Amino acid sequence: MSYRHVVGPRTFVFSDLAELMAKATPPRSGDRLAGLAAESAEECVAARWCLAEVPLAEILARPLIPYEADDVTRLILDTHDAAAFARIGHLTVGDFREFLLTAPSETLAAIAPGVTPEIAAAVSKIMRNQDLILVARKARVVTRLRNTIGLPGTMAVRLQPNHPSDDPAGIAAAILDGLAYGCGDACIGINPVSDSVQGLAGLLHLLSETIERFDIPTQGCVLTHITTTLEAMNRGVPVDLVFQSIAGTQAANASFGVTLPLLREAHEAALGQRRGTLGDNVMYFETGQGSALSANAHHGIDQQTLEARTYAVARAFRPLLVNTVVGFIGPEYLYDGKEIIRAGLEDHFCGKLMGVPLGVDVCYTNHAEADQDDMDTLLTLLGTAGVTYVMGIPGADDVMLNYQSTSFHDQLYLREVTGLKRAPEFAAWLARMGLTDADGALRPGGGAPLLSGIAA
């Protein structure tokens, strides 16, 4: 089925829904690399006008990747909530945008199970940045394991104490530094250098012992491949969160060495660990625009729509945390600061709209046309949009992964500007430890209790 839109004397024709959505996407290098992007600004605007007139029911009825060819498509359609969709099924994409701008938080929560990733992506393509911020701010997704993440007026931080040789002393020093800055309520998450079960076990024991020793209401995670984590659980190693990078097509997930049945197996195993005290959200997923294209597994679909499909995979496993590592893949997919900022807002909006606890690693690689000023801008916009969590990295420079992100002190800036609080259980712990005052502000010299505890 083709689509067309007339602008003055010119008629723009789009061969199918996939082409229409691709050409309606704001410019980005990945779509240009794949030969999917609009050839001009005029064609992009024409595609957006045309997309705005497409009924949501038509998008639901026309899968971009055939049902029989892709297990992510099957997951999306087999788990679709028809009752939730009935509240919006009569709308066009343009009508849906208007609906979202005025809908209260309770309505957004009610329709989330009925919003497919293709619908979320479609409406995001015709929205301004301020639209994405406004709607995402109203969409709240609350998850729990040992604390409560995603409550209104809060923002958590993943403490990321990576080390280029997995040195326990270096990791412990970074953990101490991050806790002293009030970071760590999302989780304390280490990207390991080694993928061996023995190395993973040592890091997981380090995290578990630190959390238990200081009675910290948070969770630890070592971001290794899911099969390694499964083997660690089989050996009795303490695992709070199971991590995995995921994508929006079956073939892209296969490039990561992961399948939906494998995710189900790990989810059940993690639930069996019974590590939560407040809830049972035990999964942590990372995503990023361009992963399917880099694996040659994109099926001719634009990278932002495929990113939204990733959130359908995440949603099926009730994760504690999901984050888009927005600028990590590189300038081949998001060329500069403008493209990274737009992608970060899109990802956050689509994830929240679908009921996923979306955080953002506000980041870039050193060969991208971006700098820390761009990250400051995106961080501030995401704070206004009610982002679930961001990253806390020593000096904003990950010395193991070699990319630029956000630092421990960046979250202090954002909290002062926006008034965002920490997860309530973690905030109470910081106050008990003398690290913060009653208002959540850091106390001078507040790290002394942690230092004395480690010395003991």
From TrEMBL:
Record's function text: Catalyzes the deamination of various vicinal amino-alcohols to oxo compounds. Allows this organism to utilize ethanolamine as the sole source of nitrogen and carbon in the presence of vitamin B12.
Pathway the protein acts in: Amine and polyamine degradation; ethanolamine degradation
Record flagged with keyword Membrane: no
Domain of life of the organism encoding this protein: Bacteria
Gene Ontology BP annotations: amino acid metabolic process; ethanolamine catabolic process
Assigned GO CC terms: cytosol; ethanolamine ammonia-lyase complex; ethanolamine degradation polyhedral organelle
Cofactors that this protein relies on: adenosylcob(III)alamin
Binding-site residues, adenosylcob(III)alamin: P192, Q244, S294, M400
Annotated binding of substrate, by residue: R158, L159, Q160, N191, E286, D361
Record's subcellular location: Bacterial microcompartment
Keyword Lipoprotein: no
EC number: 4.3.1.7
Enzyme class: lyase
Name of this protein: Ethanolamine ammonia-lyase large subunit
Organism of provenance: Methylobacterium aquaticum
InterPro entries from the UniProt entry: Aldolase_TIM, EutB, EutB_dom_2_sf, EutB_N_sf
Similarity comment: family membership: Belongs to the EutB family.
Keyword vocabulary terms for this entry: Bacterial microcompartment, Cobalamin, Cobalt, Lyase
GO terms of molecular function: cobalamin binding; ethanolamine ammonia-lyase activity
Details of cofactor binding: Binds between the large and small subunits.
NCBIfam families to which the protein is assigned, alphabetical: PRK15067.1 (NF011649)
Reaction(s) this enzyme catalyzes, per UniProt: ethanolamine = acetaldehyde + NH4(+)
TM segment ranges: none
Complexes and interactors: The basic unit is a heterodimer which dimerizes to form tetramers. The heterotetramers trimerize; 6 large subunits form a core ring with 6 small subunits projecting outwards.
Pfam family, one: EutB
